Amino acid sequence: MRIEESILIPKILTFVANKKNQMRNILLLFLFPFLSNCKSEPSVKQMPQLFADYYVRYLQTERQIKAHAAFYEGDSIRTTRPVQFSTDVIFQGNVMEPRQLSASTIRYIYNGGGDYAPGGFVFQHPDLSGKTQQRVLKMSPIENFAINGTAVRSQGITLDIQTAPFQASESLVLFFTNVRTNQAFSLEYKGLIDLPLKILPGELQNLQAGKYSLYLVKKQTVTEKSGSTDITAQVEFYSKPIEVKLEDGGNRGIGE
């Protein structure tokens, strides 16, 4: 090897090595912001799901209110365990009493009297993080109802009901009780019920002619998710009874 080559080759190798180092430094400088953002963040413990079950029943004759609520926590409904909060659960401004019904259920209960709350029944309680939550159950009551004309078994019945239009989440149950035999019979209607209610002759075939006590039960059932809470809520309104004289009728019309 000539002297010039022995001197030149090391210089070339040094030059290439320096360029590689410079390129690597430039590349690292360019990638640094992205690599910083890719650093693993500390894991955040996920809050368990809260499952809340609310129920309100109102008896119009007795002006009686019964309410209860139950709460569960877990990742799914199959893995839940009951919850008893360290602070009170409130219903309409009243403290509800917690009762251990079983190993899997703690129920908060309220029994009282008063007027129906058309603006809604209010539950208040903490969530799993301790923040106050409020749930309002609102359903229009049955103000009054009456038979329109004559109740004729072979022709059907028209029932006038004073209430707000029915919602898809609501249903109506009619309870007939024979005054003489004490036998009971019921009819159920669900969803967007047209008013006045037309009870068809075929629905009355199991009823004999005679005097009946009739009361209505309007129900609302709601299942929904609000934030990290799964909610099931039900309201029931039991009306005052009225007396109904059911006739066989033959060919008579409802209004005759």
Question: Can you give a write-up of this model?
Answer:
This protein is mainly beta. Among the domains are: 49-137, Immunoglobulin-like (Sandwich); 144-218 and 239-247, Immunoglobulins (Immunoglobulin-like). Helices cover 14% and strands 46% of the residues. Strands 1, 2, 3, 6, 7, 11, 13, 14, 16, 17 and 18 form an eleven-stranded mixed sheet that branches. It has a four-stranded antiparallel sheet with strand order 5-4-8-9, with no helix packed on it. A three-stranded antiparallel sheet has the order 10-12-15, with no helix packed on it. Strand 6 (97-102) and strand 7 (105-113) form a beta hairpin. The longest helix is centred in the first third of the chain and has 35 residues, at 3-37. The model is unreliable at 251-256 (pLDDT under 50).
* Rg computed from alpha carbons, rounded to a whole number of angstroms: 35 Å
Low-confidence stretches: 251-256
Which second-level CATH architecture of the domain at 49-137 applies?
Sandwich
Number of strands: 18
Topology:
Blueprint: H1 3-37, E1 49-59, E2 64-74, E3 81-82, E4 90-91, E5 94-95, E6 97-102, E7 105-113, E8 121-126, E9 132-137, E10 144-147, E11 151-152, E12 157-162, E13 170-178, E14 184-190, E15 197-199, E16 210-226, E17 229-238, E18 242-247
Parallel strand pairs: 1-17, 11-18
Antiparallel strand pairs: 1-2, 2-3, 2-7, 4-5, 4-8, 6-7, 8-9, 10-12, 12-15, 13-14, 13-16, 16-17, 16-18
Please give a quick description of this structure.
By secondary structure, the chain is mainly beta.
